[in-house]
Amino acid sequence: MPLAKGQDLILCHSTSQFDFWWELLLSKLFFIFVFISVPLFHVQLLLLHQAGFSVLPNLGRLFLMQFSLPIILIICTLALASITKNLAQALLGIGIVVVVLIIGLSVDFLFSQTAGDSPSFIDWLTSLLVFGSIILVPVWQFARRRTRASRITIAGCLGAATALSIIPFGSRVEQAYPLIAMKDSLAQFTIPPIAQSPANASRFPNFTSDVLLSIPVNVSGVAPVSVVLIDRMEITVDSVEDSHWTRGWVGQYRQLWPGDQRQALTYGVKRKEYERIKAKPLNLHIQLALSEYQGIEPRTLVVPAATFQDADLGFCRLANLLGHQALQCIKPFHSPAYMGRYDAPNSPCGSVRRSPNSPPTNLDVAYAWEAPSSEVLPDAGLNPIVDYEVSLTPVRRIPNTNASSPVENSEATLCPGAEIHFARPVFKRQFRIQIELPTVRLQDLVEQSTF
């Protein structure tokens, strides 16, 4: 059946649209490359040069940096533009994305505190769903103009990625951190006697939904030029009826250095469950998931008075940070991994400042730490120069013979001529250990706040 003249024109227009959609897509990408990527690349070159870093050794990573935040922003903008037809829809889409990001980050933070790390294939699948959808949907939309299908595809992929990211993988902690005997651990742990809180102790009003338990732990045995990280903690009890308050694995993110004597581990409990069993004696089984690092390639840095350049740290200077002197450094793309030791008694700066009436001790030692990164691409950002601080954390020691005394507060101060012994941290192993805390009441583990 012959087509009418109008139908013939419509068919030709549709065929032309489907045949040359890729020209429209390439022209838009070329526009973005010429007017956004190229000027941004030259600005980053200028920032790198003005900061005093050589351009040629960093040129490769500068090219890789174009695939982080700038490309992500461009891809997200294309995906949003491809599924909206006017400014009102675009603003509505931005608002939905912001709300989803806030909810997703909150849920991710909540589950990261109480669940184990997800398997690598889940992380890979989540990234594939997110980035695959925002890359392929604009191409599909340019080719076929299926706006409704494009919206459903992006929403479905983002929803599936969110669902995968919040699946609890608590059992993965047991697999990643094999249980060993305490004697085989680099760090040795004991729990001092827990003092009973008075029954009529008055407290400051607290309207939070959680009660924070604080468990003091004595520490010893960490070898020189090494560090043990407390990654997670789990508390279980004997009775099934009394186990409703436990929350599985909870993040700790604490460092144990040679010379450390005390740590305070925290564990949140729902207030309703706490009030129900706070006065009941319980047998607590505490498991700690630990990571061990060893320092290699040791070297000594003598801090000069002026700005200086270091092969690992970048450009650094002494700066006054919150009332004490510390190192402030800049380096291209990301901060380096390091572990540093500062012996205050042997430096011209004097001992580490501690609480009043505290006698000097040979434990006045502070440590600096930055964990190794497994990221392949540089940190996402527009500026290739990263500003960071080498912060020093003094060892935590028990101030007197009273085993239940709290950890003493202190701070380390640098000065010209101070020596910091740096080493490169290398991961050694992950493991779990178990500590028993028999016949203790939860109310005795809550810090007393009396009027």
Description:
With 451 residues, the protein is an alpha+beta fold. The chain folds into three domains: 5-171, no CATH class; 180-292 and 430-445, Sandwich (Immunoglobulin-like), CATH 2.60.40; 295-428, no CATH class. Helix content is 33%, strand content 29%. The strands form four sheets. The chain has a seven-stranded antiparallel beta sheet with strand order 4-3-6-16-10-12-14. Strands 7-8-9-13 form a four-stranded antiparallel beta sheet, with no helix packed on it. Strands 1-2-5 form a three-stranded antiparallel beta sheet. Helix 2 packs across helix 6, helix 4 (69-82) packs across helix 6 (120-144) and helix 6 packs antiparallel against helix 7. The radius of gyration is 28 Å and the shape is flat. The model is unreliable at 7-11, 13-18, 354-363 and 401-409 (pLDDT under 50).
Structural class, please? alpha+beta
Terminus-to-terminus distance = 95 Å
Uncertain spans: 7-11, 13-18, 354-363, 401-409
- Overall residue-averaged pLDDT value: 76
Helix share, percent: 25-40%
Query: Helix tally?
Result: 9
Estimate the global geometry from the Cα principal axes.
Answer: flat
Number of strands: 16
Q: What is the domain total for the residues?
A: 3
Order of helices and strands: HHHHHHHHEEEEEHEEEEEEEEEEE
Rg is 28 Å
Largest sheet: 7 strands, antiparallel
Spatial ordering of strands, largest sheet:
4-3-6-16-10-12-14
Percent of residues in β-strands: 25-35%
